[in-house]
Amino acid sequence: MNWWQNLPSHIDPVFFSLGSFQIRYYGLMYVAAFTTVYLLIKYRLKHEAYSYTLETIQSFMVWAILGVLIGGRLGYILFYDLSYFISNPLKMIMPVEFSNGFRFTGISGMSFHGGVLGVFFASLWFCHREKINFFHLGSLILPAIPLGYTFGRIGNFLNGELYGRTTTVPWGMYFPLDVTHQLRHPSQLYEAFFEGIVLFIVLWSLRNNLYIHKYLLALFLIGYGVFRFFIEYVREPDAHLGLIALNLSMGQLLCLGMIISGVALIILQKYIIKNNNS
């Protein structure tokens, strides 16, 4: 057995605890993600031809964070476990548990696709309120997002959750939350690399391309959707959902929606640009 195969068992997901109150690495990864995105945007404001003030971006980040948290939570509830939360509505928002005494549990269960929708609607509202062009602001923000997202998947790995399907590959790992104790794909790390680092490199390198930069939102939707769709083949489906239609997971169905939306957005933008130039 190779040493890295038991690496997840040696990782304590709790950074700090005081009684039943805990600060977990997963939560710290959210802080690292938002900080990374903010610093990259700040860099672009300083070195590239964007006229937004730092105060405007800071205000937007507040809306974006709310969009991620509210959208991510609602997305998980709607897409992954609606029947459970209908039966246990307080579990949607309560970070504590009262069975067997008082216990702080935090709020578990976030959906990336729900977070994307949350940020999308928060951004639309912010741009409408501030009279900012939605796509122009998006061309500034979007290239930074995948690198921030990388930290979220690293957080999943440190939590030992969302692991992959069983495998025989030599880089497979044993995860302590897996009751079957089988060798599994570290799919969280696959996602951190492809959906995070690789997609960041692609979007960041295209950010100033005079033709492509206006389509960055569509490229983000398509790029993430494609990477996640194929990684889902080695990611363990949610136990209570399994595989749904066409032998696909919920994540794959949602990614197909992202890819279709991205393609439709390119067609729509091309139509708008053509009419504006005619």
Question: Could you explain the architecture of this structure?
Answer:
This protein is mainly alpha-helical. Helices cover 58% and strands 5% of the residues. The chain is built from 9 helices and 4 strands. The protein has helices at residues 25-47, 54-80, 82-87, 112-130, 134-141, 145-159, 187-206, 216-231, 250-277, and strands spanning 14-18, 21-24, 96-97, 103-104. The strands form 2 sheets. It has a two-stranded antiparallel sheet with strand order 1-2. A hairpin with a 5-residue loop joins strand 3 and strand 4 (103-104). Helix 6 (145-159) runs antiparallel to helix 7. It is globular and about 60 Å long. The model has no long low-confidence stretch (mean pLDDT 89).
* Main sheet attributes: strand count, strand direction, barrel closure: 2 strands, antiparallel
The shape, in one word, is: globular
Rounded to an integer in angstroms, the radius of gyration calculated over CA atoms is 20 Å
Average pLDDT over all residues:
89
Strand content of the residues, in percent? Answer: under 5%
Helix proportion: 55-70%
Low-confidence stretches: none
Number of helices: 9
Which structural class matches the secondary elements?
A: mainly alpha
End-to-end span in angstroms?
A: 66 Å
Order of strands side by side in the largest beta sheet? 1-2
Order of helices and strands: EEHHHEEHHHHHH
The total strand number stands at 4
